[in-house]
Predict the 3D structure of the following.
Amino acid sequence: MIIASIFIALLILVLSLPAQAAPASQGIQYATNTPLPDGRIIYQVLPNDTCLRIEYLYGISDVQLRQLNPKLDANCTLSIGQQLLLGIGASSNPTPTLGPSPTPLPPTITPTPISGTTQICVSLFNDLNGDGLHETTEPMIPGGAISVTEKDAKYSKTLPTLAGTDPICFAPLPEGDYNISAAIPDNYNPTMALSTTLQVKAGDSAFIDFGAQSKDTAITQPENKTTTSPVLGILGGLLLLAGLGLGWYGLRQRRPASKLKQSGLLKR
């Protein structure tokens, strides 16, 4: 009984050793082949290799080997140097996992401030008809001057006037209140006010006219007098001559009758 008990105990101990020594399944391990950069594990067939030997060496089943290598025939015929895919491991150059693409923010637009008006253009024109209106046929007066001054002294400039049809333009100007005036040559008389004030905002464009008339070519206004038409004068002269002619003819006709009466030849 003692010997039988010892034998049974030893038998139980021997049977329990493989179960304790067997490591927990960690999946298929590929210790002998280094994965390629894309993660594939390739085995190159050596002399005397068989599919069964490769399965035992690398812990891969016959089904897995055939699934990974569809070109293997039913007899699992191998040739020296043939490359077999044993599995897909971790890539030697792992690609980082990209997160969601950030939503681009809208561009920040910084408004560009406008530094001044487009321009202020001033015309000093020769008001030929003296009506105070600038017509296209009335040219500029040379020899004068135009002054543009901002009331807070942010801008002040005077420019001479030139012959032609183009006005004098001042630009660029800061926005503000301006005094604008014109000086005319000595031989001209103003036909309208020669100064004005103007308020301009950034981006505005202003045009101003000043008129003057030359003393040498000034148009004299007609006086309120009754004028005689030359035609009427000629007609009057002709009528007068006709009257004189008729009077002379009447006198000529009365002289013979008087003479006959005096001689007694003319009776009733």
User: Anything to note?
Assistant: The longest helix spans residues 230-263. Residues 28-91 form a domain with the Membrane-bound Lytic Murein Transglycosylase D; Chain A fold (CATH 3.10.350.10). The chain has four helices and ten strands.
